[in-house]
Amino acid sequence: MRPPRASLCLAGLLVAAAALGHAADPPAPTFERDIAPLFREKCCSCHNPDRKRGGLDLSSFAQLLAGGSSGEVVAPGDADSSYLWQLVSHASEPKMPPEADRIPADALDLIRRWIAAGAVERDGAAPARPRTAGLAMAAGAAVRPEGPPVLPPRLPKEPLTVSRRAGSVTALAASPHGAVAAVGGRRQVLLHDTANRTLLGVLPFPEGVAKTLRFSRSGRLLLAGGGVAAQSGRVVVWDVATATRLLELGNEFDEILAADISADQRWVALGGPARMVRLLRTDDGAVEAEIDRHTDWVTALEFSPDGRLLASGDRAGNLFLWESAGAREHAVLRGHKGGITVVTWRPDGAAVASGSSDGTIKVWDTKGGTLAKGWDAHPGGTEGLAWLADGRLVSTGHDRRVKLWTAEGRLERSIEGLSDIGLRVAATDDAAALLAADFNGRLIMVRTADGTPLGELDTNPAPLADRLAAAREGVAKATAAETSARAGVEAAEAAMVAAAAALADAERAAATAREALEAARGGVAAARAIEATWDDEIAFSRTPAVPPPAAPAPAAPPEAGTPPAATEPAKGTATPPPATPGPTDRE
């Protein structure tokens, strides 16, 4: 059956309209047609084969993808993470072009669309493939410490400082080999048992406020760094099993904001407002090396699991990898638009993750120093970040949520429970529970598997005398409650005895009543039988023995004027004899 002509016309119009619409869409940008002329006009005077400023040549597609002295500058498919876009959009330093306004908005839009579309070289070519590392961690790559868990001895539980309300948790760490969590505070470090959420004891830190805490990879050492703002900074290392001080390092003129100890325990790295990273030898406390590349406060430090590399970040968003021996630059990790708040190495050492005040989390391939994956995590800022032993990440930030991520950056679970901005996160040694602390001093524990709340850890324990008084008050209340309950039990038991006696009496009365009821029922039956008998006799007595004769029919009245005829008895009927006068008649 042929379609109507109107339908054919309509179909033709739709095809034509679609063709016009496609013709109106601008073609996807390519390097040869759109980007190369733009770079030649705006950038190639400084970035060409003869003059590679920053080691970057923008005159050819191959040289552009090769990057410069700071590494790759284009992340195909991800404009925001591309260092080139950050420079030309003036989102990062050094701005491009230097000491000049940004290039026009239409040119910026063209560069952004080109990178987002995959950084295509020419018409018909496939998008460039991002140079990303595999994010999945190999099974068994994380090596767990050997031997029994490392636990502290019995420690004093008397707090050195007590506040009217809990303060912000400035430092948090969980042991990788034991159910122990360390919480930093003013002039003290609190140790908690994460298995039953109780206070294990208090480690004095008279140096000031503990701003950073780290357990060694074996769980045998605990490092605390901090001090007094604008006055002094110090690092202290304890032996966890004996709770004794082993080291006191550093002599800073400002508080220490970030510190870590290498896996072989040869070096301690520290940094803070001085914008300097110092590597100190643990044997004599001498300075091994100094790193002065940071342009703002050093806010994050961590050695790789094998101790070969050191990651450092600052408040300006600069993030570096250094060789621990000699402090030589290994890589520059560019991509964050805000200050670095935290860096943390994956247990296998193949990747390092960073959190930033720009709200993102980024995972970096440590071999080439390239971005493997980045995503928006916490609007307003990411503050806390930690790896789990299986390669997942846990984070917290300004949105007051604890979030669990897969290695690829997919949100697995978002957990509520914080009362303010989330500051620190950690995971227990078996990864069965997550810890998260907030600005109000609240420290919660949740089950990793489903986010179920497990309880809280006390970050502002009361003095022992107050706790003893509270315990005694509790004993007094419990004793009073016990006395009251005992009296209640005795009264109830007496009532039960009385009720049992009353029940026995009631049962006997009920038995007697049942007997009376049965007797009464028998009496009623007998009475009804007698009643029936007399009813029958009465009915019989009222019934006549011979029925009475029928009365004669009345005679017709005589006609007028006719004398009454004598009445003759009927045939066969005897004439009654005359009545004999009675005594009355005789009288």
Radius of gyration: 52 Å
Please state roughly what percent of the residues sit in beta strands, choosing from under 5%, 5-15%, 15-25%, 25-35%, 35-45% or over 45%.
25-35%
The helix/strand class is alpha+beta
Q: What is the name of the CATH topology of the largest domain?
A: Methylamine Dehydrogenase, Chain H
Write down the overall geometry: elongated
Q: Which stretches of 5+ consecutive residues score pLDDT under 50?
A: 1-23, 583-587
If you average the pLDDT, what whole number results? 87
**How far is the N terminus from the C terminus?**
142 Å
DSSP summary, beta strand count? 27
Please summarize what this structure is:
The protein has 587 residues and is an alpha+beta fold. It contains seven helices and 27 strands.
Structural write-up:
- This protein is an alpha+beta fold.
- The chain folds into 3 domains: 26-116, no CATH class; 172-461, YVTN repeat-like/Quinoprotein amine dehydrogenase (Methylamine Dehydrogenase, Chain H, 7 Propeller), CATH 2.130.10; 466-496.
- It has 7 helices and 27 strands.
- A hairpin with a 5-residue loop joins β24 (422-427) and β25 (433-438).
- The N and C termini lie far apart (142 Å).
Write the layout of secondary structure elements.
Layout: H1 5-24, H2 31-42, H3 61-66, H4 83-88, H5 105-116, E1 172-174, E2 180-184, E3 186-193, E4 198-215, E5 221-228, E6 232-239, E7 244-252, E8 258-261, E9 267-271, E10 277-281, E11 287-291, E12 298-303, E13 309-314, E14 319-323, E15 329-332, E16 340-345, E17 351-356, E18 360-365, E19 370-376, E20 382-387, E21 393-397, E22 402-405, E23 411-415, E24 422-427, E25 433-438, E26 443-447, E27 453-457, H6 464-541, H7 583-586
Antiparallel strand pairs: 1-2, 2-3, 3-4, 4-5, 5-6, 6-7, 8-9, 9-10, 10-11, 12-13, 13-14, 14-15, 16-17, 17-18, 18-19, 20-21, 21-22, 22-23, 24-25, 25-26, 26-27
Helix pairs in contact: 2-5
